[in-house]
Design goal:
The chain is an alpha+beta fold and 377 residues long. Helix content is 52%, strand content 15%. It starts with a helix and ends with a helix.
């Protein structure tokens, strides 16, 4: 369907075309007519004519740009990326077929230019909304663009895709990444894929019965592999929490930004960093660094970090805890003999008085190791 911006464009064009003018879709439905509802009989005739002409045109090997049916001239254009529309104009003594082609050609060109500019304006508007917040944009302008997608929508969330800078093999620009994202998140379902800068793209996702929050997280987890295979670019993906109104999506966007930073800080190995699932990491990041340093030194003891084996012992304890206190699994993960693992755990216990083979102490040490990651990163 044509949106309000398209109809405003067509109204301006109709002012310069002194005859019946409008747009019909490929199903024969009139989406815009300069006569409004004042000529219902004529509109019905146009609808019937375009249905016949389109069917015959699509069955031919050659599909002409212009075609006439009695006193109506049609010109096919593409308003959306994959939906064909037909401009039409009524022919008369003053508007013959040749003149009508010129008018429709100019109208199509004006629509194309206006749509390109409108797309830039829409991107700029939403970019400002997610980065700077609702106080910086006009809600009416947002809803003029987005209102047609709000039916059945209960909330919104933002996914953020950020290119990985660590591998020079990946050279795709943000346009390629956006094209891949638009194939996964079509705008006809209310998704908005928005390039934020040359490294990041945001996806504004409407949440409804068809696209639930869990669905969005599932899609997000597949983005990484999709972009690597199609755009040859490695990326980080993160998800903000849901908000109830599209004007509040700045909150979700900034949460998605934080989720990537937190995920990288703690070395979390996930395809998508989900802000709402990083509770412990967020809590640790809220601790003043001086307090965090004091906690670490009080727990491990002042002399522990002076020992040259401290780093190796901490890594051994970390792998042991990540393998659920299973000695066999941890020793395999470290490529060491289980007796070597037990020796290191015993040494750590003697140096710190912390027995990681006990569940409660293991949890305490695990949190301390996360605090260390926070301090180091």
């Amino acid at each position: 369907m044509l949106n309000n911006t398209n109809k405003t464009q067509l109204n301006r064009i109709a002012e310069y075309i002194d005859t019946l003018f409008g747009v019909v879709n490929e199903n024969g439905v009139i989406e815009y007519c300069s006569a409004g509802d004042t000529l219902p009989g004529k509109i019905q005739q146009i609808s019937e004519k375009v249905s016949d002409v389109i069917l015959s045109a699509k069955s031919d090997t050659y599909n002409p740009s212009f075609f006439a049916k009695e006193d109506i001239l049609f010109h096919n254009i593409t308003v959306d990326e994959d939906e064909e529309r037909f401009l039409f104009i009524q022919l008369s003594e003053t508007t013959n077929e040749e003149y009508g082609k010129r008018l429709l050609g100019l109208a199509a060109f004006a629509i194309e230019c206006s749509n390109q500019q409108n797309n830039k304006n829409v991107m700029s508007l939403f970019r400002k909304l997610i980065i700077d917040g609702k106080q910086t944009v006009d809600e009416k302008m947002i809803m003029d663009v987005y209102a047609e997608y709000t039916t059945g929508v209960t909330s919104y969330m933002v996914l953020l895709v950020t290119k990985y800078k660590g591998d020079s093999r990946y050279e795709a620009d943000d346009g390629e990444v956006c094209n891949v994202l638009r194939s996964v998140f079509p705008d006809k379902q209310g998704f908005i894929v928005l390039p934020v800068d040359n490294m990041s793209s945001a996806i504004i996702c409407p949440i409804n019965d068809t696209n639930t929050y869990e669905d969005m997280l599932q899609y997000a987890s597949t983005i990484h592999d999709t972009i690597i295979s199609e755009a040859m670019t490695d990326v980080y993906v993160s998800a903000g929490s849901i908000v109830s109104h599209i004007m509040d999506i700045s909150k979700s966007y900034h949460e998605a930004e934080s989720a990537i930073k937190i995920g990288l800080t703690f070395g979390i190995n996930q395809k998508c960093f989900v802000y709402s699932k990083l509770s412990l990491e967020k809590l640790i990041c809220s601790i003043p660094k001086e307090s965090a340093r004091m906690y670490i030194h009080e727990l491990f003891g002042e002399g522990f970090f002076m020992d040259k084996s401290a780093k190796e012992l901490l890594n051994t304890v970390h792998v042991f805890l990540m393998n659920n206190l299973n000695v066999s699994e941890a020793s395999r993960a470290l490529y060491i003999h289980r007796n070597t693992l037990m020796y290191r755990l015993d040494k750590f216990n003697k140096m710190t008085n912390l027995d990681c083979t006990k569940f409660a102490t293991g949890m305490q040490v695990d949190i301390a190791l996360r605090v260390l990651q926070y301090l180091e990163n």
